[in-house]
């Protein structure tokens, strides 16, 4: 589902240290010093260095709906390519089934039959009516799966994780973010460290839940959140 491309550096922390060392007049030929310097930067909150590490990956098999949400995180000048609907095989296009639908036998049957009807209609519009595929594609739901090639820097990904690993996030986006974390962990030891320590839901960053309807994970800090919400309401 997630493929980390070889253009993604396996030594992100060391790379950050190299870049910072140029401006600090440090020894950038010593990789051990570079690693320690990079680690010191991110631990100290000097997160501009994160923008020098790009992640290039293939995101495949997720719904067009969640990919539209993915595109809203545009900070740090990310770029992407997406599979065109002109080339989808309408006779057997894949789609995403929500977990709650899959657990309900009757709901799953209705859902599957509807998708099959859409696939047949798209195919007939093209083959029997001579409708161009790009026009027949207007029938396709946002639940169809798609494939993109994505590039963005790690600061953008980390900040995205704070919002999208939250239990209040859309279920498929949480799954997508979790799959990316898993793929990066397996990519190298330095990536494993970054994911374990910095790819976390926002309550672990702020120390309390910022949502009006908390999942309870950060309930120890509920009083702090209530105070902030009341202060915000008073300002409004």
H/E element sequence: EHHEHEHHHEHHHHH
**Biggest β-sheet description:** 4 strands, antiparallel
List the domain count as a whole number. 3
CATH class of the largest domain: Alpha Beta
Strand content: 5-15%
Helix run count: 11
In angstroms, what separates the terminal alpha carbons? Answer: 43 Å
CATH architecture of the largest domain: 2-Layer Sandwich
Structural class: alpha+beta
Outline? elongated
List the helices and strands and how they pair.
Blueprint: E1 2-4, H1 12-24, H2 31-43, E2 54-63, H3 64-70, E3 79-82, H4 99-103, H5 105-127, H6 133-136, E4 145-153, H7 154-164, H8 171-187, H9 189-198, H10 202-206, H11 222-235
Antiparallel strand pairs: 1-2, 2-4, 3-4
Helix pairs in contact: 1-2, 8-9
Task: Tell me what the structure shows.
The protein has 236 residues and is of the alpha+beta class. The protein has three domains: 2-82 and 144-200, Gyrase A, domain 2 (2-Layer Sandwich), CATH 3.30.1360; 89-139, no CATH class; 207-236, no CATH class. The protein has helices spanning 12-24, 31-43, 64-70, 99-103, 105-127, 133-136, 154-164, 171-187, 189-198, 202-206, 222-235; strands spanning 2-4, 54-63, 79-82, 145-153. It has a four-stranded antiparallel sheet with strand order 1-2-4-3. The longest helix has 23 residues, at 105-127. The two termini are 43 Å apart. 26% of the residues are buried. Mean pLDDT is 88; it is low at 220-225.
